[in-house]
Design goal:
The chain contains seven helices and no strands. The chain is mainly α and about 190 residues long. The protein is elongated. It starts with 8 loop residues before the first helix and ends with a helix.
């Protein structure tokens, strides 16, 4: 077996082409047992040392699905609030600045209560499951990244606290607790 051939790039490219052709001829000749095969490449040896791990491809379809699901839920909630505001002839800016007050009718109150109920689209269970599914997807199900995921989620909730004036509603705190519990359970699996 020839282990190496020194020469120019053109020669090496030529040898690669010859090797492909030789391989095809060898297959034909082996059947007839008429020729000897000469391999012109180094035998492959597996290294006993460290090799770079193969990185999995990020599941962008799953991330996109979760994002779209989140956007649909957000839009439904936003429309609910917009309808409530428009029915009363109010302006969002005035409401946000405290210049006006929004009255909530029973139908809207029931829809909102249903949305944040235990089985609702914005309930603790549904939201925490969406957060966990997204976290697993972006981390490629790598448990070694749980610390990073927890830090990112903590940061997100802190940002939300700032947006809400320093304190989140109870449902948000329950969602945070449920997310952290699910991350802990995943880590123990």
């Amino acid at each position: 077996m020839i282990n190496s051939i020194k020469g120019s790039t053109a020669v090496n490219q030529n040898e690669a082409l010859k090797e492909k052709q030789s391989s095809k001829k060898a297959e034909v000749n082996e059947k007839d047992n008429e020729a000897v095969v000469l391999e012109l490449r180094k035998p492959s040896e597996k290294s006993a040392g460290y090799s770079k791990p193969v990185k999995k491809k990020l599941d962008t379809n799953e991330i996109n699905r979760l994002w779209e699901q989140s956007q649909r839920s957000y839009e439904a909630l936003r429309k609910l609030v917009e309808n409530l505001i428009s029915k009363q002839g109010k302006k969002l800016g005035d409401l946000l600045e405290g210049k006006d007050v929004l009255l909530i009718d029973e139908e809207t109150r029931a829809e909102a209560a249903n949305a944040i109920s235990e089985d609702g689209e914005w309930g603790v269970k549904a939201v925490s499951e969406r957060i966990i599914a997204f976290a697993k997807s972006v981390s490629e199900n790598d448990k070694t990244k749980i610390g990073e995921l927890k830090d990112a989620i903590k940061k997100g909730f802190k940002e939300a606290e700032k947006a809400f004036g320093g304190k989140l509603p109870d449902i948000s705190q329950k969602t945070y607790d449920a997310v952290m519990k699910q991350l802990d359970e995943w880590e123990k699996e």
